[in-house]
Amino acid sequence: MKKIEIIGLLQDRKKIIERLQRRGIVEIIDFNEDGFSKLDTRNSISQFEKNMNSAISARNILMKRFPKKKGLFESFKGKEEFEKHEFGKKATRRDEIVKICHEIISNDQKIAECKAANVKTEVLIDNLRPWINLSVPLNFKGTNSTRCFIGSISNEHTAEQIKDMILEIEGVPESIDIDIISSFKEITNIAVLCYAADNKVVYDALRKIGFIEIGERSSLKPIEQIEE
Fold first, then answer.
1. Half-sphere exposure of 162 (CA within 13 A, CB side)
2. pLDDT, tens only, 170-186
3. Which residue in 213, 102, 98 sits closest to 147, CA to CA?
4. pTM of the full predicted structure?
5. 190 and 177 in contact (C-beta within 8 Å)?
6. Element (H or E) spanning 205, and its range?
């Protein structure tokens, strides 16, 4: 193998290297000798690699979202070729193309975030549907003279059955009102209203029969939340 040394102006280095690479007959190696200095191209290489990775990512995104239909003999085709002047034209648009690649990647991320937000919203709506008949906000605590408890107990019950269960506990007044919001085989969603003075005794009785207050604390009615 023969070795050659090419000396030229610094401003022509890019053209010389590109010409050698296109010819494909020279292997470029590191050169170290006193009196010569080597340019530190690490930052440039790093930036080129970042741009290349961005371009590959953007291309993969486009191929995923807009797949190209392949013909029967598509796999037998070689790589697409284009002339040097065409490559030069594309090179002058490098900054514009890199910017577009970043926009594609950014928009793909936004789409993923929106899909995640959609799933989260759909889950919230599904959780609110059993409460759609509730005529007050989910954070409603009552009025100056009353106390309201909104929540669920296990299994399916009627309002009368729940009231009987509560009144079996000593000290619970009969002046309580129970509204069934929705009822299923596994769970019954209720709103319980009592006088403010009976707040503690009624709440303790509810806890004893397995009552769990709803965690959602919106100032909107369930139907308003779903519409929103």
1. 27
2. 999 999 999 999 999 99
3. 213
4. 0.63
5. no
6. helix 199-208
